[in-house]
Amino acid sequence: MKRSLHIAAVVAALALITVAPGLAREFNPALVGYGGKIGFSLTNVSNHPQKTENHTGYLIGGLCNYPKTDLISFQIEIMLSGKGFTVPDTTVYDTGNVLLGRLEATWLLQYIEMPVLAKLSPIRTGKYRPYVIGGGYAAFLVHSKLRLKDNLLELDYDVNNTKGLDVGGIGGVGIDMMAGRGWVFFEIRYEQGLMSVIKDTDYKSHALSFQAGYWF
Predict the structure, then answer these.
(1) For residues 29 and 42, what is the distance between their CA atoms, to the nearest angstrom?
(2) Full-model pTM
(3) CA contacts within 13 A on the Cβ side of 175
(4) In the beta sheet, which residues pair with residue 33?
(5) How far apart are CA 11 and CA 164, in angstroms?
(6) What are the structural domains of the chain?
(7) Which segments within 150-181 are labelled E, that is strand?
(8) Tens of pLDDT along 68-104?
(9) Alpha carbon distance 48, 136 (integer Å)
(10) For residues 156 and 148, what is the distance between their CA atoms, to the nearest angstrom?
Protein backbone atom coordinates (compact mmCIF):
# COMPACT_ATOMS: atom_id res chain seq x y z
CA MET A 1 0.00 0.00 0.00
CA LYS A 2 2.75 2.48 0.97
CA ARG A 3 4.71 1.66 -2.17
CA SER A 4 1.62 2.20 -4.35
CA LEU A 5 0.95 5.58 -2.74
CA HIS A 6 4.55 6.68 -3.24
CA ILE A 7 4.41 5.70 -6.93
CA ALA A 8 1.07 7.50 -7.28
CA ALA A 9 2.55 10.69 -5.83
CA VAL A 10 5.46 10.56 -8.29
CA VAL A 11 3.14 10.06 -11.26
CA ALA A 12 0.94 12.96 -10.12
CA ALA A 13 3.98 15.22 -9.86
CA LEU A 14 5.20 14.20 -13.34
CA ALA A 15 1.73 14.85 -14.78
CA LEU A 16 1.67 18.32 -13.26
CA ILE A 17 5.18 19.08 -14.51
CA THR A 18 4.15 17.98 -18.02
CA VAL A 19 0.90 19.95 -18.12
CA ALA A 20 1.94 23.04 -16.14
CA PRO A 21 4.28 24.70 -18.71
CA GLY A 22 1.47 24.88 -21.26
CA LEU A 23 -0.85 26.44 -18.70
CA ALA A 24 1.53 28.77 -16.85
CA ARG A 25 1.17 31.78 -19.18
CA GLU A 26 -2.62 31.85 -18.78
CA PHE A 27 -2.95 30.31 -15.32
CA ASN A 28 -5.64 31.88 -13.17
CA PRO A 29 -6.40 30.12 -9.86
CA ALA A 30 -9.93 31.55 -9.89
CA LEU A 31 -10.73 29.43 -12.94
CA VAL A 32 -9.68 26.07 -11.48
CA GLY A 33 -12.61 23.79 -10.70
CA TYR A 34 -12.73 21.09 -8.02
CA GLY A 35 -15.25 18.34 -7.47
CA GLY A 36 -16.07 14.77 -6.62
CA LYS A 37 -17.59 11.76 -8.37
CA ILE A 38 -19.05 8.32 -7.80
CA GLY A 39 -20.05 5.59 -10.19
CA PHE A 40 -20.04 1.95 -11.14
CA SER A 41 -18.37 0.01 -13.92
CA LEU A 42 -18.69 -3.20 -15.88
CA THR A 43 -15.17 -4.63 -15.99
CA ASN A 44 -13.59 -7.63 -17.68
CA VAL A 45 -10.36 -8.82 -19.32
CA SER A 46 -9.42 -9.75 -22.87
CA ASN A 47 -7.28 -12.67 -24.10
CA HIS A 48 -8.45 -15.14 -21.44
CA PRO A 49 -8.58 -18.75 -22.76
CA GLN A 50 -11.90 -19.38 -21.01
CA LYS A 51 -15.21 -17.59 -21.25
CA THR A 52 -15.25 -14.67 -18.80
CA GLU A 53 -18.11 -12.56 -17.48
CA ASN A 54 -18.29 -8.91 -16.45
CA HIS A 55 -17.70 -7.90 -12.86
CA THR A 56 -19.62 -4.92 -11.49
CA GLY A 57 -17.11 -2.59 -9.85
CA TYR A 58 -17.25 0.84 -8.24
CA LEU A 59 -15.39 4.14 -8.25
CA ILE A 60 -15.21 7.14 -5.96
CA GLY A 61 -12.85 10.08 -6.12
CA GLY A 62 -12.13 13.71 -6.89
CA LEU A 63 -11.11 15.90 -9.80
CA CYS A 64 -9.36 19.14 -10.64
CA ASN A 65 -10.32 20.91 -13.87
CA TYR A 66 -8.54 23.84 -15.53
CA PRO A 67 -10.09 25.56 -18.60
CA LYS A 68 -7.42 26.33 -21.18
CA THR A 69 -9.95 28.02 -23.50
CA ASP A 70 -13.74 28.18 -23.86
CA LEU A 71 -13.49 25.01 -25.91
CA ILE A 72 -11.02 22.79 -24.05
CA SER A 73 -9.98 22.12 -20.47
CA PHE A 74 -7.54 19.77 -18.74
CA GLN A 75 -8.61 17.47 -15.93
CA ILE A 76 -6.64 15.44 -13.39
CA GLU A 77 -8.47 12.89 -11.22
CA ILE A 78 -7.71 10.49 -8.40
CA MET A 79 -10.07 7.63 -7.65
CA LEU A 80 -10.44 4.45 -5.67
CA SER A 81 -11.59 1.94 -8.26
CA GLY A 82 -12.79 -1.64 -7.99
CA LYS A 83 -12.28 -3.88 -11.02
CA GLY A 84 -12.22 -7.57 -11.81
CA PHE A 85 -13.59 -10.40 -13.90
CA THR A 86 -15.38 -13.71 -13.42
CA VAL A 87 -14.71 -17.17 -14.83
CA PRO A 88 -18.09 -18.88 -14.32
CA ASP A 89 -16.89 -22.47 -14.58
CA THR A 90 -13.32 -23.30 -13.61
CA THR A 91 -11.56 -26.31 -12.09
CA VAL A 92 -10.15 -25.56 -8.63
CA TYR A 93 -7.47 -27.45 -6.69
CA ASP A 94 -6.33 -26.94 -3.10
CA THR A 95 -2.72 -26.33 -2.05
CA GLY A 96 -2.12 -30.09 -2.03
CA ASN A 97 -3.27 -30.35 -5.67
CA VAL A 98 -6.46 -32.13 -4.61
CA LEU A 99 -9.44 -31.46 -6.85
CA LEU A 100 -12.05 -29.33 -5.06
CA GLY A 101 -14.50 -29.20 -7.97
CA ARG A 102 -15.75 -26.77 -10.58
CA LEU A 103 -16.56 -23.37 -9.13
CA GLU A 104 -17.22 -19.77 -10.14
CA ALA A 105 -13.99 -17.79 -9.73
CA THR A 106 -13.92 -13.98 -9.50
CA TRP A 107 -10.75 -11.88 -9.37
CA LEU A 108 -11.37 -8.70 -7.34
CA LEU A 109 -8.83 -5.92 -7.91
CA GLN A 110 -8.78 -2.61 -6.05
CA TYR A 111 -6.75 0.29 -7.48
CA ILE A 112 -5.82 3.88 -6.85
CA GLU A 113 -6.40 5.26 -10.34
CA MET A 114 -5.10 8.56 -11.71
CA PRO A 115 -6.49 9.73 -15.08
CA VAL A 116 -4.99 12.75 -16.90
CA LEU A 117 -7.53 13.99 -19.46
CA ALA A 118 -8.48 16.62 -22.03
CA LYS A 119 -12.13 17.71 -22.05
CA LEU A 120 -13.68 19.20 -25.20
CA SER A 121 -16.96 21.14 -24.94
CA PRO A 122 -17.87 22.19 -28.51
CA ILE A 123 -21.48 23.10 -27.75
CA ARG A 124 -22.62 25.46 -24.99
CA THR A 125 -26.38 25.95 -24.72
CA GLY A 126 -27.13 27.96 -21.60
CA LYS A 127 -27.18 25.65 -18.62
CA TYR A 128 -26.10 22.55 -20.56
CA ARG A 129 -22.64 21.67 -21.89
CA PRO A 130 -22.20 18.30 -23.62
CA TYR A 131 -18.59 17.20 -23.92
CA VAL A 132 -16.18 14.51 -25.02
CA ILE A 133 -13.25 13.49 -22.84
CA GLY A 134 -10.11 11.47 -23.47
CA GLY A 135 -6.62 10.75 -22.21
CA GLY A 136 -4.76 8.14 -20.23
CA TYR A 137 -4.54 6.68 -16.76
CA ALA A 138 -2.16 4.95 -14.38
CA ALA A 139 -3.63 2.54 -11.82
CA PHE A 140 -1.77 1.29 -8.73
CA LEU A 141 -2.90 -1.94 -7.12
CA VAL A 142 -4.01 -1.64 -3.49
CA HIS A 143 -5.47 -5.09 -2.87
CA SER A 144 -6.39 -8.23 -4.79
CA LYS A 145 -8.26 -11.39 -3.92
CA LEU A 146 -9.84 -14.41 -5.51
CA ARG A 147 -13.44 -15.29 -4.64
CA LEU A 148 -14.56 -18.90 -5.16
CA LYS A 149 -18.26 -19.59 -5.11
CA ASP A 150 -20.77 -22.36 -5.67
CA ASN A 151 -24.31 -23.01 -4.52
CA LEU A 152 -23.20 -23.82 -0.97
CA LEU A 153 -20.17 -21.70 -0.12
CA GLU A 154 -18.23 -18.53 -0.86
CA LEU A 155 -14.55 -18.23 0.04
CA ASP A 156 -12.12 -15.32 -0.43
CA TYR A 157 -8.36 -15.77 -0.80
CA ASP A 158 -5.64 -13.14 -0.96
CA VAL A 159 -3.54 -13.62 -4.09
CA ASN A 160 -0.08 -12.39 -5.08
CA ASN A 161 -0.08 -13.11 -8.81
CA THR A 162 -1.53 -9.72 -9.79
CA LYS A 163 0.63 -6.90 -11.14
CA GLY A 164 1.03 -3.69 -9.16
CA LEU A 165 0.66 -1.28 -12.10
CA ASP A 166 -1.74 -0.88 -14.99
CA VAL A 167 -1.80 1.90 -17.60
CA GLY A 168 -4.25 2.54 -20.42
CA GLY A 169 -6.40 4.89 -22.43
CA ILE A 170 -9.76 6.55 -21.73
CA GLY A 171 -12.51 7.92 -23.94
CA GLY A 172 -15.99 9.08 -23.07
CA VAL A 173 -18.91 11.46 -23.43
CA GLY A 174 -20.87 13.40 -20.85
CA ILE A 175 -22.86 16.47 -20.02
CA ASP A 176 -22.39 19.29 -17.50
CA MET A 177 -25.58 20.85 -16.16
CA MET A 178 -25.48 24.12 -14.21
CA ALA A 179 -26.60 23.71 -10.59
CA GLY A 180 -26.10 26.61 -8.20
CA ARG A 181 -22.50 27.82 -8.27
CA GLY A 182 -21.26 24.69 -10.00
CA TRP A 183 -22.08 21.87 -12.37
CA VAL A 184 -23.68 18.46 -11.98
CA PHE A 185 -22.30 16.01 -14.54
CA PHE A 186 -23.17 12.60 -15.93
CA GLU A 187 -20.65 10.66 -17.98
CA ILE A 188 -20.14 7.36 -19.79
CA ARG A 189 -16.50 6.34 -20.08
CA TYR A 190 -14.58 3.43 -21.63
CA GLU A 191 -11.14 2.36 -20.39
CA GLN A 192 -8.75 -0.01 -22.13
CA GLY A 193 -5.72 -1.30 -20.27
CA LEU A 194 -2.42 -1.75 -22.08
CA MET A 195 -0.70 -4.05 -19.56
CA SER A 196 -1.53 -7.49 -18.24
CA VAL A 197 -3.21 -7.42 -14.83
CA ILE A 198 -2.17 -11.00 -13.93
CA LYS A 199 1.46 -12.12 -13.93
CA ASP A 200 2.58 -14.44 -16.75
CA THR A 201 -0.59 -13.78 -18.79
CA ASP A 202 -1.80 -11.34 -21.42
CA TYR A 203 -5.07 -10.48 -19.64
CA LYS A 204 -5.70 -6.79 -20.35
CA SER A 205 -8.49 -5.06 -18.43
CA HIS A 206 -11.28 -3.02 -19.94
CA ALA A 207 -14.19 -1.23 -18.31
CA LEU A 208 -17.36 0.62 -19.21
CA SER A 209 -18.20 3.05 -16.42
CA PHE A 210 -21.18 5.25 -15.58
CA GLN A 211 -20.24 8.26 -13.49
CA ALA A 212 -21.94 11.19 -11.82
CA GLY A 213 -20.64 14.05 -9.71
CA TYR A 214 -20.45 17.75 -8.99
CA TRP A 215 -17.74 20.35 -9.55
CA PHE A 216 -17.53 24.10 -9.07
Answers:
(1) 36
(2) 0.81
(3) 9
(4) 65
(5) 14
(6) 2-19+32-215 (2.40.160.20)
(7) 154-158, 165-179
(8) 888 899 999 999 999 999 999 877 666 666 666 678 9
(9) 24
(10) 6
